[in-house]
Design brief:
Blueprint lengths: L2 E2 L4 E3 L5 E3 H4 L5 E6 L4 H17 L4 E7 L8 H6 L10 E4 L3 H5 L7 E5 L4 E7 L3 H14 L1
């Protein structure tokens, strides 16, 4: 894929609008679009995102909790899925699933690997081993 991205607008946990491309400029970003009600997200994908953050310290990992009707994220319930109660990486809220729609997500979790130049390098759905392997190889080839 070679789609240049102009903006990724989300809210931080304090309710402020943030553009992730401006917040983390000139940095490879691995973004995970997820929802707390998705067991694959909270049980496999978020720990995997943390694992990738440890393995590839030069990249910026961030979570985007996408809201769906009756499945909204609050700072409290977003933090509650982490046993420490602390966020292992920045997490933002996609209030009206705009980012989810922007990237034509297949569901949650949807992974977005974005180059330092703001180009979507890979978009990968899932949290099983196949998705993990595809993400690992994509990260290896981009870093």
């Amino acid at each position: 894929m070679t789609d240049t991205i102009n903006t990724i607008t989300v809210k931080d946990l304090n309710g402020r609008l943030v553009d992730l491309l401006k917040l983390f400029p000139k940095k490879i970003q691995l973004l995970i679009i997820y929802n707390n009600d998705c067991l694959g997200c909270t049980g496999r994908a978020l720990p995997l995102a943390y694992e990738f953050q440890q393995q590839f310290p030069s990249i910026q990992v961030a979570g985007i909790h996408t809201n769906f009707t009756n499945r909204e994220g609050t700072p409290e319930n977003i933090k509650s899925v982490f046993t420490s109660g602390e966020l292992p990486f920045p997490i933002f809220i996609d209030e009206h699933h705009t980012v989810y729609d922007q990237f034509k997500a297949e569901g949650t979790p949807q992974w977005l690997l974005i180059t330092e130049e703001g180009v979507l390098f890979r978009s990968i759905f899932g949290s099983q081993n196949n998705a993990k392997n595809r993400l690992y190889y994509a990260l290896e080839s981009i870093t």
